[in-house]
Amino acid sequence: MLLKSSFLALIFLFISSCSGRNTVQSFTFTGMGTLLTVTYTGQKNIAVESEIKQSVENFEKQVSYYKKGSLVSQFNRLKKESELLVPHWFCELVAISLHLGVETDNAFDITYKAKGKLWDSKSETPPTDEELRRLSTLVGADLVISDCKRNMLKKKRDAVVIDLGGVAKGYAIDSVGDLLKEHKITNFIVNFGGDMLVCGNKNGKKWKIGIKNPLKPGDFLKVISADKMSCTAMATSGDYERFVVKNGKKYSHIIDPKTGNPVDNAKSVTVIGKRATVVDLLATAISVNVEKSHFIKKIIASFGVAVYTLSGMPPKWQTFEPRERPTTHTEGR
Questions:
Q1: Omega of the bond prior to 314 within 30 degrees of 0, cis?
Q2: Per-residue model confidence as pLDDT tens digits over 12-52
Q3: Residue 132 to residues 56, 59, 139, 191, Cα–Cα distance (Å)
Q4: Which CATH superfamily is domain 67-155 in?
């Protein structure tokens, strides 16, 4: 449940014009371990671009698992029953992650890292099932207590740790989208390493996004035309670009919180919905259960999202859509 690989690619055409209203602006910077690109229509706004860069930088400093001074690290060092006072947004992010994790039957769990960090070690030998089982008492949403009226977090066991990598990027995308709207910029794409929020239109035309085929460079599994009148969030998770190697074998970076083992055969999982925070989290959860169609259908019924998967051996492309489809038009296989 670390940050996801990038499978989505923007494939829209830029339109040039002397009119500021028709100009498409774009700027790219690095952060959260990937390339971050924001595209919007209208006149270039350096002040807003700078505000976005600063807000993402500040956000990353607080949600990083690896930065010693982050709020995540402060929580992870906390002793049981001790209270940590945090900003309201951070408390809400943790609370939402815990709640939605339970809704996925704990296929997504921010406390997974007690097991997951064994795969991060430099040892060439994979952790044994017994080693992972011994850590099961440190994994579970009920081990973290959030009280966002008081902006307080605490844990039930000293060694409980959290990692927000599977949801932080989506939350950052939504936050940037909200910031753009506050500045009256309503036609934009926020693309953070392939996870994105697409709002409005490109001078009256729909934004188009393609889902890359991880098995065939340059090929798209599906092309999606976003609704011109609203926002569409998309997130993709997969196991072919990011992995660890133990004893010469590649293992996915996505960890099943229940077993502590990497997922198998989840080549690409794309989720489409309304909020990037939600689809980011769901893409990870579905990757854990990618070959369980009943689980995917339950997620669709609960969240009203569309899901596209490439999984199994040999890889099979599957489409799962709600009865009332998200406000997008799709072209694909």
A1: yes
A2: 433 333 444 568 999 999 998 899 999 999 999 999 999 99
A3: 34, 31, 11, 35
A4: ApbE-like superfamily (1.10.3980.10)
